[in-house]
């Protein structure tokens, strides 16, 4: 986000199009590195140490030549699996809404310039990253010490990670044009959302360790729908506000032209 704001500000490759070019090229380069450096299993990796190979084999086992068949019927009729999918969908709806609309809010409502917008848009996610590491580490230590049960960790994480940000986003309705207060509330709301990584994100492993990757792929497919649905709904709700601002902007430009004449 800070790099995007900076690219738009300096006008490189036409300004905002450079964001797509730069990150697109980086994605291609990362993909090339992935195909060149990644191996299927430790025994096939040309640069792995013997100690690391033994460690992975000991703790994760060695996958057989034939993968275990996916129990589709059991998966699709599992209420816990659908509960995780519903939670994943709801989490991503809020996440994608903020991710896509936060720069617009900071520009149109709080009137940050493009360069500052990129930095401030990234700040809540920096707080989220830091909090998720701290919270997950604490929960892991409590689990290892036998102080709390796994179910308690998951429930606590979801209360903090979902309900607290909900209250924070409602509070955003009352900050008005106080830019500092708006940024603080956003940082707290998005930051606390980092607790979900010790919540439903781990539930796939709790539910079926042998199929955790498959379950994550399944629920994440459902949860990707908000990626295109949430911005569309947000745009439909706020279209009158955008139209009014465009009209006001055109009127101001016309007034400035008349004054210069």
TrEMBL record:
**Membrane topology listed for this record:** Multi-pass membrane protein
What SUPFAM superfamilies would the database entry show? Answer: MFS general substrate transporter
Q: Where in the cell is it found?
A: Membrane
Q: Taxonomically, which superkingdom?
A: Eukaryota
Q: Which UniProt keywords apply?
A: Membrane, Symport, Transmembrane, Transmembrane helix, Transport
What would be one Gene Ontology cellular-component term for the protein? membrane
Q: Which residues cross the membrane?
A: 20-38, 119-139, 160-191, 211-234
Q: Which GO terms describe its biological process?
A: monoatomic anion transport
GO molecular-function annotation terms? Answer: symporter activity
Q: Does the keyword Iron apply?
A: no
Read off the PANTHER family from this record.
Answer: FI19708P1-RELATED, SOLUTE CARRIER FAMILY 17
* Name of the protein described by the UniProt record: Putative sialin
Originating organism: Penaeus vannamei
